[in-house]
Amino acid sequence: MKKIYLSAFAAVLSVGMTSAQVQERPYSFNDQKIDGVEQAPTDPISTSKALGVTFWTNDFTNASDWTISNDGQVTPFGWNIGTTVNTWWATFQPGINTTGNFAEVYNGNYNTGNQAIGVTYRMTTATPIDVMSLGGTEQVSLSFKQYGALFNDGQTVLISTNGTTFTEVYTNNNRTVYLGNNPTAAYANPETISVSIANALAGSGATSVWIRYEWTSRFPSSTSPNAWTTFGWFIDDVALTTNPDNNITAESSVWGTAGLNYSKIPLSQQTGIEFSTKARNNGINPQTNVQLNVNVTGATTYSGTSNAVTIQPAAADSLVLTTPFTPSGLGTYNVAWNLSQTEVDDVPTDNANAPVTFDVTSFTYARDRGTQTGTFANVGEAFVLGSYYDIFANATIYSVDVRIASTAVIGSVITARIYSIDPNATTLDAALILEDQSLEHTIATGNPGSIINLDLAANGSSGFQMNAGETYFLAVSSDGDGGTTAGASIGTAGTAPAQTCFFYDGPDATWYYTTNIPMVRMNLDPASNTIGLEENNQLFGAEVFPNPASDKLNVRYATSVASDVTIKVTDITGKVIATMNEGTKEAGTHQLEMNTASFAEGVYYVTIASGNSVITKKVVKN
Fold it and tell me: In this structure, are 71 and 166 located in the same domain?
């Protein structure tokens, strides 16, 4: 599948979802797998069970046990040790639900926008902990209790064997982002985390370790206060414990086809689904005949395994299902998958991956996880929001299903779009070729909180033909209202691999990737499209960018047939500022770059006309 995986550099917008700016570079295609996408370095499984013998503890009774570096910020910014809750989000909570002192990181109040920018807060054990003298082995696990929630901040735990060079052993950065309307994304109060640090100690020759808790934004070059927001991170009851004799842990898992997985798969797109798990030996003994076992129940049954391997203490190996599983027929499929080994596991609770459920449908193709857990709301500004979809057999898309969030404003206008991808382009903006689009839909009473269907209009009810072996970008867009309201709010559900879901921010004229999956689905049902011939306009899509504009303005439009096109710019009084006769344009997408340096600041209207088809877009000149 032709898939664009672009790395990201630091930037974030206040849109209520995790995002990072796309770094423009050549694409990587040809069966790109999910293990080619940057992953969080660890994904330890939480457990409340004590592992082995605990030989060192710290409950923050003595603040002097820790060295705090708050990057020049003044109290209460940064790490604080005591019983006072500073974090704005947790002031109505009791803080972390433990006794006595705790540690808490604070970085201003999201509601007042006084977050510190460009900071890294570190809290490190003041003196080294002599692991070998106290525990007698380098097979050791670190545990602690935490509370808080993740936004765009980075919450990591590191250790060092020399007090200078630190290695990350745990991160919360792969957790679900807390958006206010998904309370289950907040951490349990408290949540006990246990992670083996044996792999960081093994073979180092060191006898002691330092422990560090570090906080910063995950997008540290951003100057947006919202990129530096934290809901707070509380830490208590830190401990070091010897590892058990035998313990295989399912550290991370991947499933899907060509790097993507789907919650709903149409019959025409059934194909082999791969399953893989990173298995780590967090025990003292070698673990033999370690295998990944996959069992499918529901519409059909299936059992499969990976090849068996031996994993040495502190080492890890990736286990892949020997034969991909291919669904066969309509219905729901439930997947249970876990690790096994010859030895009796002392901690069997961390052997299993999270269960998977997906449906094979007649016509619906969806990446979102089904139940809305978040909201995309670009504060009323223009946007395009969507996801990649792989096509495994020729198919026709007739319409697009979109979940309108309950916070959407009645009267906001949206359109659905499908783009093909130019594999030779060097920027995401250039790669996306608009192929079909719905007519404009005005959000009406009854739409918020429900899924609506938008008919693709370029070819009437004939839909758009998609080719096997290609990847398409399915999206919903809005011109916004200049940031006056929440505008066209769209539901999100589930977490996506990086570089597979994107949004275009109108004011920034920039593409960003997001790890929250928009609820924008393909509908391959011919009966879902009721577009009549009279609605099959010559001109079926248009956009202007950047908006606001400065010296240049791009006008992109799409025609369903060869036709004469005229573009006219008027000011707010109706005075014609510029007229461009584009002549006869073939069916397809076209773009015009307009010099607006001489335009006065203010509001303008760009009208694209072809025959009886007219589309008008509002643009602001700064």
Answer: yes
Region of residue 435 (phi > 0: left; psi between -120 and 50: alpha; otherwise: beta): alpha
The amino acid present at 488, given as its one-letter code, is A
* Overall number of domains in the chain: 4
CATH of the domain at 554: 2.60.40.3080
Distance CA 307, CA 441 (A): 52
Distance between CA 4 and CA 423 in Å, rounded?
8
The pairing of strands 539-545 and 552-559 is antiparallel
Output phi, psi for 430, to 5 deg: -75, -30
- In this structure, the strands spanning 501-505 and 316-320 are unpaired
Buried b (16+ CB within 10 A) or exposed e, 165-198: ebebbbbbbebbbbbeebeebbbebbbbbbbbbb
3-state secondary structure of 163: coil
Instruction: Answer whether residue 31 shows pLDDT above 50.
Output: no
List the one residue out of 295, 468, 445 whose CA is nearest residue 389: 468
The encoded tokens of residue 256 equal 């899907």
Task: Locate 344 and state its tokens.
Answer: 């009796």
Question: Which of 528, 559, 578 lies at the terminal end of a domain, its last residue?
Answer: 528
Note whether 206 and 191 are within 8 A (CB): no
- The residue among 163, 143, 164, 151 whose CA lies nearest residue 215 is 151
Of 482, 510, 528, the one marking the end of a domain is: 528
29 backbone φψ class: left, alpha, beta (φ>0; ψ -120 to 50): beta
| Torsions phi, psi for 598 (to 5 deg) | -85, -5
Q: Which two tokens stand for residue 420?
A: 């093909």
Q: For tokens 């002192």, name the residue.
A: 101
In this structure, are residues 386 and 475 in contact, taking their beta carbons and an 8 Å threshold? Answer: yes
Taking each continuous run of H as one helix and of E as one strand, the counts in the chain are 3, 46
The mean pLDDT of 575-590, rounded to a whole number, is: 86
Q: Residue 208 belongs to what domain range? A: 54-242
- Per-residue pLDDT reduced to its tens digit, 372-421: 988 888 888 889 999 999 999 999 999 999 999 999 999 998 999 999 99
